[in-house]
Write a structure and sequence with these properties.
The chain is an all-alpha fold and 155 residues long. The protein has six helices and no strands. Bound molecules: zinc ion (ZN). Zinc ion binds at residues 32, 34-35, 38, 51, 53-54, 56.
Length: 155
């Protein structure tokens, strides 16, 4: 039996029907949004070029500041509120903050980053999120109505 090349396997994988996988299930575990088995990350937060199992290119993935936004809202703000409450109510020495506030701040800010980034990348794949573009004529009055043609690009 002849050996398949990597290109053949990637082409075969892209033609195959894949089940829809919930972004929350694949993303939090850092798995590929298409096959659910390959890894998304090659470091703590660095995305791989493509899935090592199904060959899906992760070039579409651009969560931008999304993970940081969620961490700031749901991690940093409660940690700062904790630190301020501790300081105002008990006025402890600085070493107390080193052993309570600092670990709490690091845990609430660093731990959720990776699962949040994975969830956002998988959601981007699941919902086919991307930049808007008009590539086909638009039928605002239904298929039998007049079409709004795509204008020729001037540039
Ligand atoms: Zn995959």
């Amino acid at each position: 039996m002849p050996q398949q090349t990597v290109t053949d396997q990637a082409a075969e994988a892209s033609e195959r029907e894949w089940p829809k996988r919930e972004p929350i299930q694949t993303g939090i575990r850092g798995r590929c949004p298409r096959c659910g088995e390959g890894h998304l990350f090659k470091g703590f937060l660095t995305l791989r070029e493509e899935c090592e199992v199904c060959g899906l290119s992760y070039a579409f993935a651009d969560p931008a500041d999304g993970p940081a936004f969620f961490v700031i809202c749901f991690g940093c703000v409660p940690a700062v509120v904790f630190a301020l409450t501790l300081q105002i109510k008990f006025d402890p020495p600085t070493w107390v903050h080193l052993f309570t506030t600092l670990p709490f701040l690091l845990l609430t800010c660093l731990l959720p980053l990776r699962p949040l980034k994975g969830w956002l990348v998988c959601s981007q794949y699941f919902f086919k999120a991307g930049e808007g573009r008009i590539a086909e004529p638009w039928y605002p009055y239904g298929p039998a109505g007049p079409a709004v043609a795509v204008p020729e690009r001037q540039w």
